[in-house]
Specification:
This protein has 235 residues and is of the alpha/beta class. 37% of the residues lie in helices and 29% in strands. It folds into two domains: 63 residues, no CATH class; 165 residues, Metalloproteases ("zincins"), catalytic domain (Zincin-like, 2-Layer Sandwich). It has a four-stranded mixed beta sheet with strand order 1-2-4-3, with helices on one face. Helix 3 crosses helix 4. The longest helix has 31 residues. It starts with a strand and ends with a strand.
Amino acid sequence: MEQITISNIKIDVVRKNIKNIHLAVYPPTGRVRIAAPIKVNEDVIRLFAISKISWIKRNQRKFEGQGRISQREYKQRESHYFQGRRYLMTIVDTEGTPKVILRNKKFIELHIKPETPTIKRHEILTEWYRVQLKKQIPSIISKWEKVLNVKLDNWQVKQMRTKWGSCNIEKKRIWINLELAKKPEHCLEYIIVHEMVHLIERHHNDNFQYHMDTHLPNWRQIKTELNKLPLLKDA
């Protein structure tokens, strides 16, 4: 990928068949990306980036101030999050099939064999998160297909390091970050709406913001909330 460096900040440059230059700073790491028209030369892109350096740094600081959670070991009384709520992990020894159970809105039980290694514990809980998130998504999509008058052909869940979601406009498919299973449902809904609005407007321009403002007036507050929620270290 093409990359430039301005004030010690590395910026990814993506060439697209577009008319204008677009700048974005992505959670959770503050990665910077510029989408530029195919024929625009590097000097123009550099000047654009320099003119936006204060904005870039300001947005990166938002992510630096975000709460961080140490790497999980999946042990007794360790904190884990589900749908925005904090749970304490309880390890339950079992010789049966591994499973995850929520108890009393306070505890998350991990039923596993005593010798289960950390990586396997991670896989069990991650798969549980995936199943739970896939239960949440269909009703939200169905609701917003009617509101936005659009139709998705497909949606998928996957682990993403730099985006909460993405949209393939041509295939009418959206991807949802698995980490959203840990966030409040209104944050999940905001991301789904954001990606579905791209079926109406490809770019993050005034028209895109108009549709977001019209259909989800508090989207900016939710976006700020989402980007302040705890993240895993080195996620």
